[in-house]
Amino acid sequence: MEQIMKLFVEATMETFTTMVGLTPDAGEIEDVGHIITPSEICANISLSGDNAQGATTITFAREVAIKVVEGFMGEGMADSDEDLYDALGEIVNIIGGAAKAKLSEMQLKLSLPSVTGGNNYFLSLPKDLPIKKVKFTLEDLGEMNLIVYMKHT
Amino acid sequence: MAILAVDDSRIMRRLISGAIEVLGYDMLEAGNGVEALEVLEKSYEEVDLILLDWNMPEMDGYTALQKIKEDERFKEIPVMMVTTESERENMVKAIQAGAKNYLSKPFTQEDLTSKIAECLGMGFE
What we know:
- The complex is a heterodimer.
- By secondary structure, chain A is α+β, with helices and mostly antiparallel strands.
- Chain A has three helices and nine strands.
- Chain B is α/β, with parallel strands linked by helices.
- Chain B has a five-stranded parallel β-sheet, with helices on both faces.
- Chains A and B meet through α1, α2 and α3 of A and α1 of B.
């Protein structure tokens, strides 16, 4: 799982460097429990195959998410929640796709992305899967968490 | 003179529109394969290139590609896949189904513009 997480970190770095125009600084890989209290916005995509299942989620404070989307699209583009969530869904889709390519031997398929926003909610993730987290510092924009859980049989 | 951009993300279509404008083309758009075929039914004579995402609701890009290449009216329109599906196996599958080119996400705006120009037989620096 540690190796899989490293590939997701690489995929995240590539996505942000190429499409958002910034170089994130990745923290250490941490183990986390199955109950997560995310930042205000989280974007999620599932990856599944015959011998593996899992997902990746990126979480941000709203003001950080807006700045990330402005980097992705240009200033003033995230002017509605619909656009903001659409763009974050696309970013996690690209991270998931880049990670899937690095894990090509698993023959994973990507779901369509989903995005959740709000305050005071939690995510209850599968109890039987190892869950890893890496905190990224996004230059001067703020922080983002990358959460990955995956089982490979 | 138009390019049909097919992607379920409206924001991604907006990003693609920047490259299309630079090249002096108009953009038609669709949010999935079904909508793409509807746009082609009405406007195929003005479409010079189709940019096709792979993972979309209702009808995915690969299925849409097969339908486009089966239709006598649409089959000569070049198609470029613009997608997160970057494994070699999928690239080969799309090229065998008739796609002219393939661009994996993530990409820079310059990558996108030059790949579109290449598909259209235009020089682009």
